[in-house]
Amino acid sequence: MTEASDVASKYTHPPVVSYWQKFSQRGLQLAEQVLIRRHIAPGTLILDLGCGAGRAGLDLLPLGYSIVGLDLTYALLVSGRGLHQQKQLPAHFLQGNMLSLPFPDHHFEAVICLYASIQHVPGAARRQQCFQEMARVLRPGGKLILGLDNLAPALSCYLWWGWRKLVGQSPIPLPLPEGMESKGAAAAPQPPLTLFQQLVGHGQGVARSLRWRTWLVGKDAGRRLGLGGGELGDTMIDRVSDAPTPGQIQFHVYDHQELVTSLAQAGFSLFDSYSQREWRDKQEFPPRIRQLEHQVIYAYQRDERG
Asked: Could you tell me whether strands 108-113 and 268-275 are parallel, antiparallel, or unpaired per DSSP bridges?
């Protein structure tokens, strides 16, 4: 099996398809909504890479966007077509690989690649090829909205959150873009958590950080000393839905500067970013904490010179 077929096979497991079908019906997460609607106007032709079951289209098509979705996994695309047909929405889906996009140069005004799709591509050279392909199919000045998963927040995030609570610092509020108060953009009020619930939640989060982030940092330290193989940031995962499924697949956790440098080489400039938690908590984080958060959404612009 090739790496691409490994990934497609992983996402073909019935529990995984069912999970992403249900998740897609919940629509875009708030940070994704904010950056897309802030920087991409309705009516724009968007390429949705790693579209899965069409989660982005279910949210954006009713707002007047035009979307073409591409994914490796045929079973997810079939699921997405069904969801779109149920809602009487156009369903433009293609099965394909980000390494070689089946579109002409400068065809799209925007590209979105959400929920870690790029991180399943093995090897820095291949990921760079994917970024070059994104730049190729984008018009000069076009926007790229990229979502990455760091597997868990870094321990420094928990230390920062704890310090803010300890000293009682006021959060820096994040106002929603105009018009986003409607259509469920703001989460419904939730009853406050008890101290015990907060401690349990933070304990579980720290355990995930120790398992995923701290372990990977240690592994990368060994790689720098020549004590292990593979590229910095590389790991293997067996969970792409609620529960682990058979087989492991490639996953690359980006260092922030690595990402910025790679995209700059492909002709992109970073101009906006947020973590999912910032919008959930309705407060702005310092850049370093944002970069180490669990899920981060970036907005890039393609070089105007083409």
From this structure: unpaired
